[in-house]
Design a protein that fits this description.
There is one protein chain. With 250 residues, the chain is of the alpha/beta class. It has one domain: Aldolase class I (TIM Barrel, Alpha-Beta Barrel). 41% of the residues lie in helices and 15% in strands. α8 crosses α10 and α10 runs parallel beside α11. It is globular and about 50 Å long.
């Protein structure tokens, strides 16, 4: 997997029906996946339907519970997710952090995901890019606290997705540049290497997850050195998502 670019589609709370989800999934399946690994993270209740359509695309969930089992109304565990067909899980997404998740909770989820056999896609990123470069410390803290207690043998199973929160969504100040991503990606690898060792971290993938679209995909690959992408809105558009896949394949 690490020899290929990785493209992950985060559908969030979309689409509004199983029929639409199946149609969207079938549209993506038509692409060539020989040189790229594609993961779709739909709403949990669509997993069972989508896994019957094709095995060319891996499935993931957008979150897991911070507890293994028990009286936690509305929660879905990592083991349940794996049993239903998921092989990946997004953890620490900026939208989840805005709901109150902290690095301690995320750390528990990372450990449970690994125990269940899921590949954690750990999201990190600063809310603002200050001139004093304090955002580096923010990212370092997120990584160290979210991965506390993770063994060297397990770290290579984790994917890191960098989300510059200030460059995402309707309130974005501006788009992040490939150079800014490269700078942070190198820093992330340094933090991970200091904690786990360069050998263990060498094959880890660092993805870009800041409002990815067909127009900026190529530059983040060539100039930014991205190992792939965590795609939000564009993953709900078959044409746009397919174009991102094709660019990563080329």
């Amino acid at each position: 997997m690490r020899n290929k670019k990785i493209v992950i589609g985060n559908w969030k709370m979309n689409p509004e029906s199983v029929k639409l989800a199946e149609s969207l999934f079938k549209g993506v399946v038509k692409n060539n996946f020989s040189k790229v690994s594609v993961v779709i993270c739909p709403p949990f209740l669509y997993l069972n339907n989508l896994k019957k359509i094709s095995k060319k695309i891996s499935l993931g969930v957008q979150n897991v519970a911070s507890e293994e089992r028990g009286a936690f109304t509305g929660e879905i565990s990592a083991l349940m997710s794996y049993d239903t067909g998921a092989r990946y899980t997004i953890l620490g997404h900026s939208e989840r952090r805005d709901m109150g998740e902290n690095d301690l909770m995320i750390n528990k989820k990372v450990k449970l995901a690994l125990l269940a056999g899921l590949v954690p896609i750990l999201c990190v990123g600063e809310k603002e890019r200050d001139e004093a470069h304090e955002y580096f410390q923010v990212i370092k803290n997120q990584i160290e606290e979210s991965l506390a207690g993770i063994s060297k043998n397990s770290i290579s199973k984790i994917i890191i997705a960098y989300e510059p929160v200030w460059a995402i969504g309707k309130n974005a100040i501006r788009e992040a540049t490939p150079e800014e991503f490269r700078e942070v990606a190198v820093f992330i690898k340094k933090v991970l290497s200091d904690k786990f060792g360069g050998k263990e971290v060498g094959n880890m993938s660092i993805l870009y997850g800041g409002s990815v679209n067909p127009k900026n995909t190529s530059s983040f690959l060539t100039e930014g050195g991205a190992d792939g992408f965590l795609v939000g809105g564009a993953s709900l558009d078959v044409k746009k998502f397919s174009e991102i896949i094709k660019i990563c394949t080329a």
